[in-house]
Write a structure and sequence with these properties.
- By secondary structure, the protein is α+β, with helices and mostly antiparallel strands.
- It has 6 helices and 8 strands, in the order βαααβββαββαββα.
- Strands 1, 2, 3, 4, 5, 6, 7 and 8 form an 8-stranded mixed beta sheet that branches.
- α4 packs across α6.
- The protein is globular.
Length: 217
């Protein structure tokens, strides 16, 4: 089974299950959202993605399993996300980009795909330069209390976020990009140690192990 993370494009929106394709929770303020008819939501979301791609660059990552999209992450500077202004712990820090949501298909939850998506976002932002952190609004009350667009704080904590500004329901959380990079390196190092632990030891050549006079010099 192949797994990889790729850039989000407008074409992906129609392929993604879950709430991403038509959800405008973050992209519009509440008044503007109420004016959008249900059949206009998908085109409005496509227009937002196209606008951010043109003005800022990639604003999402999609995880593919056997070349089929099964999850996504959306992120952008908060200037592109008017919906974030309604949170009591807003605004986002000026040196950070806002991660709005991470979604993985229920059939693939628990396989580490959410962490892959967050690391994919971190790698993209590190390459861009000039960005120090990723921030996100978490929900301490569990999923579904404010719709499916606010990530549980427990998930954010499990992938490296720490509380930046406390709140009983929706704290603002932050992950330094340097910490994200260090976490990636630690994971890769642990995998190398694991591979080394199970790799069979090489058999010594019959000539090896016999000390010669030259070895003592």
């Amino acid at each position: 089974m192949s797994r990889k993370v790729v850039r989000l494009t407008v074409d992906h929106l129609a392929q993604l299950e879950g709430p991403c394709g038509t959800c405008l929770f973050w992209q519009l303020d509440p008044v503007a959202r109420d004016r959008v008819c249900p059949d206009e939501a998908a085109p409005e979301k496509e227009a937002w993605v196209s606008s951010v791609l043109r003005d800022w660059g990639s604003c999402g990552r999609v995880v593919l399993v056997d070349d089929r999209p099964v999850g996504y992450a959306i992120y952008a500077p908060d200037a592109f996300l008017p919906g974030a202004g309604g949170f009591p712990t807003a605004p986002v820090s000026p040196d950070a980009v806002l991660l709005t949501n991470v979604w993985v298909h229920p059939h693939h939850v628990g396989g580490g795909l959410g962490r892959m998506l967050v690391q994919g976002v971190a790698r993209d932002l590190i390459k861009r330069g000039g960005i120090r952190a990723i921030e996100a609004f978490g929900d301490t009350r569990g999923p579904g209390r404010r719709g499916s667009c606010v990530m549980p704080s427990d998930f954010l904590g499990s992938v490296g976020f720490k509380t930046q500004r406390t709140h009983g329901a929706t704290p603002r959380m932050r992950m330094e990009l340097r910490a994200a990079l260090s976490l990636k390196d630690e994971v890769e190092a642990a995998l190398e140690r694991l591979v080394g632990a199970v790799r069979p030891a090489a058999k010594a050549h019959p000539a090896e192990g016999r000390m010669t006079r030259g070895d003592l010099n």
